[in-house]
Amino acid sequence: xxIDVLTLFPRMFEGPLTESILGKAIEKELxxxxxxxxxxxxxxxxxxxxxxxxxGGAGMLLKVQPIDNALTQINEERPDTKKRVILLDxxxxxxxxxxxxxxxxxxxxxxxxxxxxxxxxxxRSYVTDEVSLGDYVLTGGELGAMVMIDATVRLLPDVLxxxxxxxxxxxxxxxxxxxxYTRPADYKGMEVPEVIRNGNHKLIAEWQLKESLRRxxxxxxxxxDKLEMTKEMTKLLAEVxxxxxxx
Length: 247
Hints:
Layout: E1 2-7, H1 20-27, E2 32-37, E3 50-51, E4 61-62, H2 64-77, E5 83-94, H3 97-104, E6 108-112, E7 118-119, E8 129-132, H4 142-153, H5 163-168, E9 186-187, E10 190-191, H6 201-219, H7 231-245
Parallel strand pairs: 1-2, 1-6, 4-7, 5-6, 5-8
Antiparallel strand pairs: 3-4, 9-10
Helix pairs in contact: 3-4, 6-7
């Protein structure tokens, strides 16, 4: 996968792109990332990339010209790739696991990070997606782009040591992940449940599903409304509700 990031603050990406999963993906040549300062594409001697909005209003707007020229260079460097161009915008569609899975199927992603009051509306004609990290405003799109890149890249084949990890993560299955434990079996009186220590894989799988349902019911009950429930899940959820009501 190739990822391009257009930003005014390229140094913000140095740490995240050299550490942990992202750094290893780049080392293994599973991922190529280029971070570009689009100020370099300004067409005036002061290298301004923003200007006052027509009609008045607070703040400055990101100009269309530097973005257009930066995207043109990307297309010239990689004319053979199909690109998904993502504009980081508080008014965009909210990013979620499903979107990360969609992005992970692409061969080339381009993230445009704004850092002003807004964008010249004509910039939107160059993008395929307008995406927001959530219902709040950040000082720029850089942090949002980092989060989306991380969530996307970890889904690429061979990036994680165990591909099954990405499949069973919270949200990937439509449920929050069940509780997990490691050694010791008893730490200061806090014991690992016997059912997941007995080696019976059928009972372990049932316990994991039930506890995923319990955690989702407790913390994110609205997720259950979107879930296609099997007979087993319906039965286990009924048990969870009864147990929680009796606490």
